[in-house]
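Bumping my old thread because nobody answered last time. Still need a sequence for this structure:
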């Protein structure tokens, strides 16, 4: 357990060092959506595409589920199968919250105390059928939907908007999904 905790802390410091707090990124900040109704955002989201990262390497069937807690924060459960749809189930629990209700597209996520990271909702369908979550330095992105797939045209439009925000869309990979 100590080794896992040390690994997570080391990784989190590494993610934090990706440029979020360094001020070295000369691009304008990511534009977040104007408003997110947290109650509509709750529930399960299939991860359709992302930029590869150590937590999700070889992920199949990734699903992120948001549940409102009594204290107003949000429990986040990320689950996937490692290596194939028959691979072992991996889970990661996090806590999310909206620090400023006037900026409801800007969340914070905590995997382990005391590390907190930005969780920026940069694109969201009007009907909450899909969303895009970004990271300030553009090294991380998650395209998620309420279903295991999106129409190709919708996905290409999302990619175009991500590119307009400064993302290198060649780094975005599709996550294998199937209906359960």
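Sorry it took so long. Here it is:
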């Amino acid at each position: 357990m100590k080794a896992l905790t040390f690994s997570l802390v080391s990784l989190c410091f590494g993610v934090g060092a990706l440029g979020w707090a360094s001020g070295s990124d000369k691009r304008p900040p990511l534009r977040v959506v104007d408003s997110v109704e947290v109650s509509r955002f709750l529930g399960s989201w299939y991860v359709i595409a992302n930029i590869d990262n150590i937590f999700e390497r070889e992920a199949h069937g990734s699903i992120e589920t948001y549940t409102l807690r009594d204290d107003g924060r949000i429990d986040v459960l990320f689950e996937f199968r490692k290596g194939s749809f028959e691979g072992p189930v991996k889970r990661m629990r996090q806590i999310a919250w909206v620090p400023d209700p006037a900026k409801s597209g800007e969340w914070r996520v905590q995997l382990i105390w005391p590390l907190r990271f930005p969780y920026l909702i940069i694109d969201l369908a009007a009907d909450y059928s899909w969303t895009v979550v970004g990271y300030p330095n553009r090294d991380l992105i998650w395209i998620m939907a309420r279903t295991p797939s999106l129409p190709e045209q919708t996905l290409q439009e999302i990619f175009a908007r991500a590119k307009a925000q400064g993302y290198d869309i060649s780094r975005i990979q599709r996550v294998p999904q199937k209906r359960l």
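The CA atoms of residues 66 and 76 lie 5 Å apart. Let me know if any region looks off to you.
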